Amino acid sequence: MLINSKNNRSSKIITIRPRDEIMTRQGIPYLMGITGHSAGARGLSMSMVIIPPGGAALPHLHRGFETAIYILEGRVETRFGEGLKDSIINEAGDFLYIPEDCPHQPVNLSKTKSVKAIVARTDANEQESVVLYKDH
User: Fold this and answer.
1) Is the pLDDT of residue 1 over 60?
2) What is the model's pLDDT at position 58?
3) The domain containing residue 112 runs over which residues?
4) What is the pTM of this model?
5) What is the number of domains present in the chain?
6) How far is the C-alpha of 125 from the C-alpha of 128, rounded, in Å?
7) Does a structural domain hold residue 134?
8) C-beta of residue 32 within 8 angstroms of C-beta of residue 47
9) Does the chain have fewer CB atoms within 10 Å around its N or its C terminus?
């Protein structure tokens, strides 16, 4: 990861260029971008999620934090709510809003192409608020 700043809590603009994917608690790869650790952010994080062909995240929620997603590539079904009984299908160009504490599970609808999306969250620690959802 490239960080262009010596002092993460300064008034400088910081550039993050992630080089390696990390496996998240939700079981899908991320390119971590802006976080409290990488940029000194205090109230948000922003990363790129990649859902492999035919892949899905583990059902989860973000305890106490909102999430906004912009889909760059692919089609995804997001199962959500109590028991993951509701679902919505989105594709490249769509924005999604997920309220805090909302159980959800994104599923890549393609068997041949990855889904890529930008994820922003009101949690500077990004993975700290992830809670796996067992009630499905």
Assistant:
1) no
2) 95
3) 18-126
4) 0.86
5) 1
6) 6
7) no
8) yes
9) C
